[in-house]
TrEMBL record:
Superkingdom of the organism of origin: Eukaryota
Originating species: Phascolarctos cinereus (Koala)
Keywords assigned: Dioxygenase, Iron, Metal-binding, Oxidoreductase, Vitamin C
Keyword RNA-binding: no
InterPro entries (UniProt xref): Oxoglu/Fe-dep_dioxygenase_dom, Pro_4_hyd_alph
GO MF term (any one): iron ion binding
Domain Fe2OG dioxygenase per the UniProt entry, residue ranges: 64-158
The protein's required cofactors: L-ascorbate
Gene field: OGFOD2
Name assigned to this protein: 2-oxoglutarate and iron-dependent oxygenase domain-containing protein 2 isoform X2
Keyword Metal-binding: yes
Pfam families for this protein: OGFOD2-like
Length: 201
């Protein structure tokens, strides 16, 4: 059902933003009106209890905003995604369809770890299953070989962590006002209403 809704929205004339600076094709969930009713309760009630246990050192227990989007890969558009870390403290990646081949995710070291021999872990997509990982865990997506791949990505953010150091540039953030969650930074505790000017979403 979500996929049908996404396809309708994609074909419509509604104004659309890009999911992030890396993916050219996809849909931002807030543009569909699904952010507050779907993603916020999912994050607060179901994901945070898990991330608090799994990633206490990355703000897994203090998540207070997110950027949720669907990425789309086809043979004629984006086929793969280069190695990167996310603008997120914790990320959830859910596979939404199965009529494609290849395109697996692969994971390497954590952002700050520089090792000469990286061991990559390949993680195939399984319909309806999610992969939870630290945003700073370097990862990418291998090339699609056929079909069309759709994945729901939730970049979850903890202002208490990113207010200290911007995860993208590693410096204390300089803030400018923004609407909504912005990039998950806050000026005051509990008010996610600002964004960072050096951000790469
Ligand atoms: O292609 C994928 O499923 C991964 C997308 C991703 O890593 C991202 O959008 O940050
Ligand atoms: Fe990513």
């Amino acid at each position: 059902m979500l996929l049908k809704e996404l396809e309708h929205f994609e074909k419509s004339d509604m104004p659309k933003g890009r999911p992030n600076t890396m993916n050219n094709h996809g849909i931002l969930l807030y543009e569909l009106g699904l952010d507050e009713p779907l993603v916020t309760p999912l994050r607060e009630q179901y994901l945070q209890p898990l991330t608090a246990l799994l990633y206490p050192d990355c703000g897994g227990g203090q998540l207070d905003s997110h950027r949720a989007f669907v990425v789309k890969y086809t043979m004629d558009e984006d086929r793969d995604l280069s190695y990167h870390y996310d603008n997120a403290e914790v990320t959830l990646n859910i596979s939404l369809n199965k009529n494609f081949s290849e395109g697996s995710l692969y994971f390497g070291d954590f952002r700050e770890v520089s090792s000469s021999e990286v061991q990559y872990l390949e993680v195939p997509h399984v319909l309806g299953r999610g992969v939870l990982h630290r945003g700073g865990q370097l990862h990418g997506a291998l090339s699609l070989e056929s079909g069309e791949r759709w994945n729901l990505i939730i970049w979850m953010r903890a202002s208490s962590v990113r207010n200290q150091l911007c995860p993208m540039c590693g410096k204390p953030p300089e803030l400018v006002e923004d609407e909504g969650y912005g990039d998950g930074f806050t000026r005051e505790e509990g008010e996610p209403s600002t964004m960072n000017i050096c951000t790469l979403t």
